[in-house]
Amino acid sequence: MPTIKDVALKAGVSATTVSRVLNSRGYLSDALKKKVYAAMEELNYRPNELARSLSRSRSNIIGLIIPHVSLPFFGELTSRIEEHAYRNGYKLLLCNSQQDKIKELEYIDMLRASRVDGIIMGSHTLEVEAYRQMNLPLVTFDRQISPDIPYVCSDNYAGGQLATTLLIEKGCRKLAHIGGHPQLNLLSHLRYEAFADTAREHGVWQTSLHTDNNSFDMQAYERLLEQLFREHPEIDGIFAGSDLIAAYALKACRESGRSVPENVRIIGYDGIALRSLFHPAISSIRQPMDEMGRLAVELIVKQVEGTAVAAENILPVELAQGATT
């Protein structure tokens, strides 16, 4: 395996010069950099990222911890974060916590040992003090861990208002919301609060069903939808807490002989690309995923550079009209 000394010998420069090229340290002419990179390419030299991070006290690596990489929303969001991290000269280290406290703690320890420059958290199972003790730039998604830790989210309350108002304007008079349990302390619970407030303001009957403790258990949502139609067969409008839940609502309607949107209107939340593949295509409240990914990376980079950042970062949503409403 070639070393930095082999590259220096091949390029006809010192090992120190090669190190300066790799770490972009000091003035270096384009001709010199081309010569060094050509030698690296010819020798198939790959720099040791950990060794480089030790030498410059920065790794240019961002850790990302999400609850379930298999879920479409987190898959799309991860893609956007990676793209913006790469544009800013960073690599992404992805961890899949599956809402497991032990896994999340182990991944945090691993990221710290890997000397990442910061961590973006889409998972939150530990006590606040555990996050404070990380002593790293931190950004959370849809989770307000503490007043001094910056978070990024879409305007969940406005999204809930928009979804519920649309159902009411379409003539729905028996509404249901399906989502995660309020005790999970996620900002997404504001979607339900807006749903309930908007229904009351319009004098429309409403009910809600929530999972017990795992908002990502899709089988639980299937059971909730079966329960909903069994206990309230007159339901004619459903606001689902995500597009995936909306897809299960569409399936439940089909299996119970209900036509969408003729008998039941459905709207989801997220605006994932897959929603257009369902029949009928799912209406949704679209989160600005690209902007959310860009902003999360920007907040990490600014903290790394010692710049103060705002703790609250709420981005607007918009209606993505499909055929289920």
Automatic annotation (TrEMBL):
Pfam families: LacI, Peripla_BP_3
HTH lacI-type domain ranges (all copies): 2-56
Keywords for this protein: DNA-binding, Repressor, Transcription, Transcription regulation
Record has DNA-binding as a keyword: yes
InterPro entries given in the database record: HTH_LacI (IPR000843), LacI/GalR-like_sensor (IPR046335), Lambda_DNA-bd_dom_sf (IPR010982), Peripla_BP_I (IPR028082)
Tree of life domain: Bacteria
Keyword Transcription regulation: yes
Stated name of the protein: LacI family transcriptional regulator
